[in-house]
Amino acid sequence: MATLIEQSSILIIAIPLLIAFLTPLIGMASKKARNTVVIVGLAFVAFLVFALARDVILNGIHIYTLGATSSSLTIPEGTMIPVRIILEVDGVSVFMGIVVAIVALVAVVYSLSAMKEETGQNRFYTLLLLLIAGTFGMVFTGDLFNLFVFLEIASISGAALIAFKIRFADSQEGGFKYIVVSAIASLMVLFAISLLYAQYNLLNMGALAAAMQYTMLDRIALVILIAAFAMKLGGVPMHMWLSDTYSVAPASITVLLITASQASMYALMRICFILYGVTLDLAVVGWIIIAIGILSMFVGVTMAVRQTDITRLIAYNCVCEAGFMLIGLGVGLAVLGDRTALSTYGTTAISGAFFHMINHALFEGLLFLVAGAIFYRIGTRDINRMGGLGHTMKLTAVFFLLGALASSGLPPFNGFASKILIYESVYQFNPILTIIGILVSIITLAVFVKAFFSAFTGALLPKYADIKEVPKTMIAAMTIFAVIIIIFGLFPGLIVDWIVRPATDALVDQASYINAIMGAIP
Amino acid sequence: MSKIVRTVANQLMLFVLVFGIYVIMHGHVTPGGGFQGGAVIASGIVMLIVAFGSGHIKNSLRERRLSVVESSGALLFIVVAFAGIGTVFFYNFLVGSRIFGGIPPTGSNPGDVWTGGVIPLMNLGVGLKVIAGLSAAVLALALFSSGEEME
Amino acid sequence: MRQFFAWLFLIVLMVFLVIGGFEMVHPFGEPPSTMDQYIIDNTQQEAGSNNVVGAVVFDYRGFDTLGEATVLFAAVTGVLLVLRAGKKKEET
Amino acid sequence: MAEILIGNFPLVAAVVLMGIGLYILIFRRNLIKIVMGITILSSSVNLFLVTLGYRTGGIAPIYTDAPEGPMVLPVVQALTLTNIVIAVATSALILSLVIRIYRHTGSLDSKKSRRMKG
């Protein structure tokens, strides 16, 4: 068991890759064997993630040097800097890992019946696994260039999956937009990495953080990195692609794309808090991120009001919710240098953002799965052409209501628990931000109530009279999300103590991240 | 294409193959490696597609087989990486052993193929992957734009 | 108007990059090289390879290459997925 | 100024290529040209990376029959190799999507073939 945990950080990335390479071969022989291998493999990966999370939270940062004579040998003899690629797993990484592991399992379970009728399933599952492996790689790696490579894996497999439904022209357009945006963003990331490499001849994040001088070139690199990752996570003004791609992708893929976006947000935090840290001009950078957050909230919620397409509505709500996380993180970043402010409300704001991140993945995931279920049965996404679906698809209606209430931040659901953390801490930083947040939440509620009433209540339309509830595995997938939402809503304190608080502590503790790589060298 | 082009392409393919395999298998001694050699051979296959037409090539290069070759190349790569997990993932466990285990003298030397540890094996895996992958992609694009479709 | 702002953005970005890049990047031909010099000096013992770039690609940064091979694999799979012949007739 | 430009000629070339790539991405609406823009942008980053690793009078970092002289930095060359392969993969995928879009809409103009707005 100890060896398994020691190797687990690489196994979590390598096992999905291995299964992805095997899937085309197994799939030729038997569909059932392929589905079993995918599910069992991902369940094993999820188990490893939880075991690793427990170990990291109890024993501190986990280091894995690839290709060295020993996995803890970060710095080879005869030099003072790390040479090889190092996986560095701290509280933030395992937090993101838990999010990805839960969502990945649910997405695969949902796909089993949702994709039954489609052609090209072998390739679908291959790319699904690659997307999951890419996201895991992004959150576990401690090397900047490695981050870029995994970003590319996630974007390319994501784009191909968005275009999966080839009979609709919209899907191809969505895939095209996603890949163009991702390609530009990742080239910007690479350019920024090369600027950093040019000065320090390093690629490891911990070593770079230790060597960081915050010169003019570093500032340029920081601006480019923030722009690129904000583009990838769909922050306004670079949000145009998000609604077009999320609305046309198969529902299980959209859920994974949300986690891929959150991995970009993780990378943004990693760069601001760990790579640059207190050398940063904190207030300015913090306010830039807060500004992106406020804009995202406003634009997301106002655009959501206008939508008649149910998936586009949820996609704009995603933009809006991402704004909440950005505000929480921005406030945390703005007070990072100020110890008293950090301990009174800074860490609470970051905790709120983290908690909202996992909640966001859960309730937006649930909403997208519900929208996918409706599309699966009636073949349209237009709210105005739906009506009375609650009579026949009772469970789906309940799940939609659950997701909508959680997203609007009503007690006792999980969205309330995380939003209240953000509200109360941000209020001490700047009260206006809290007022904006509450306002946006109210409008969100109005949007969802309208959508719910026109889609699920009212008289049952005659053309939908013989609509049945969706297949069992789809219901099972939605139930998993719903149960976790309710548990998180009822016991928020436990979740915050177990996984959110360690993540927050790891994020503000730049010194131990550097020490894990550089050892005793100051 | 005309008969001259097809005959010349047929003859040239042999040299392309030999050169590509040379580049792949000497990747640890001379400039080159799996990606470069794979691209050389894949461009040879593109030459055949241009000369004979994609419909003709489709009959001999079936998509299924290309998929199998591509997957096995990728699997060879990741399995060699996994094989080092007794020490650390990606550990070069073959240096100093019987297989490709030679250690070249320090500094400038004439070069020896029997060196490099796992590097030649990984080059081979990547080479197979790139050959099959690039030809499959080009073939699919060519077939699709000429109106036919892959299986 | 949009054109004007786009041009402005482009020009400002270029000036920014040129000034920032030329003034700050190390002088051409004399890069800082602690990590790279270590690799150049130790490749032959550690990886047993004469080709230093090959050793970096497959040994020191082998994980990147695994990712790179995966990117290619994903792209080829994606091309074949997008260009597959759907069984159902297209209905747009 | 002139000395800086001549001394850093490869950097100038990289920035010019980057400008061309961004110009295409911002102002051109043809989908194929967008693919070309991304490829040019990627080439500019590759050129920049390789330039960073150059040492005056350096030789290729390969010990087989190596002449005397300092070796240029190998890591950037490996990074460039990775990025080249990634660029190939990206453009292959984008081109296949463009072919599909062309089949569906009969146009390569991004304004005409665009269906989703807002």
Quick overview of this protein structure:
The complex is a heterotetramer of chains A (522), B (151), C (92) and D (118). Chain B is mostly helical. Chain B has helices at residues 3-25, 34-52, 54-60, 63-83, 119-145.
Q: Would you mind describing this structure in some detail?
A:
The complex is a heterotetramer of chains A (522), B (151), C (92) and D (118). Chain A has helices spanning 2-29, 31-59, 91-114, 121-140, 144-162, 169-200, 205-211, 216-233, 240-248, 251-276, 282-306, 310-334, 339-378, 389-392, 394-407, 414-429, 431-456, 472-490, 492-508, 510-518; strands at residues 62-65, 86-89. Chain A has 522 residues and is mostly helical. Chain A has a domain at 281-490. Chain A is globular and about 75 Å long. The mean pLDDT of chain A is 91. The mean pLDDT of chain B is 89. Chain C is an all-alpha fold. In chain C, 72% of the residues lie in helices and 0% in strands. Chain C is built from 4 helices and no strands. Chain C has helices at 2-24, 34-46, 52-60, 62-82. In chain C, helix 2 packs across helix 3 (52-60). The longest helix of chain C is centred in the N-terminal third of the chain and has 23 residues, at 2-24. Chain D has 118 residues and is an all-alpha fold. Chain D has a single domain (2-56, 68-105), classed as Helix Hairpins, CATH 1.10.287.3510. Chain D contains 4 helices and no strands. The longest helix of chain D is centred in the last third of the chain and has 32 residues, at 74-105. Chain D starts with a helix and ends in a 13-residue tail after the last helix. The model of chain D has no long low-confidence stretch (mean pLDDT 87).
Features:
heterotetramer, A: 522 residues, mainly alpha, 2 strands, D: 118 residues, Helix Hairpins, 67% helix
Nearest-integer average pLDDT of chain A: 91
Number of strands of chain B: 0
Secondary structure: number of strands of chain A: 2
Helix content of chain A: over 70%
Low-confidence stretches of chain A: none
What structural category arises from helix and sheet content of chain B? mainly alpha
Please tell me how large the radius of gyration of chain A is: 22 Å
Tell me the number of structural domains of chain B. 1
Biggest sheet overview of chain B: none
Largest sheet, spatial ordering of strands of chain A: 1-2
Estimate the strand proportion of chain A: under 5%
Give the N-to-C terminal Cα separation of chain B.
25 Å
Counted by DSSP, the helix tally of chain B is 5
Query: Runs of chain B with pLDDT <50, length 5+?
Result: none
What letter string, H or E per element, gives the SSE order of chain B?
Answer: HHHHH
Radius of gyration of chain B: 18 Å
Biggest interface goes to: A-C, 54 and 45 residues
Strand content of chain B: under 5%
Q: Kindly report how far apart the N and C termini of chain A lie.
A: 33 Å
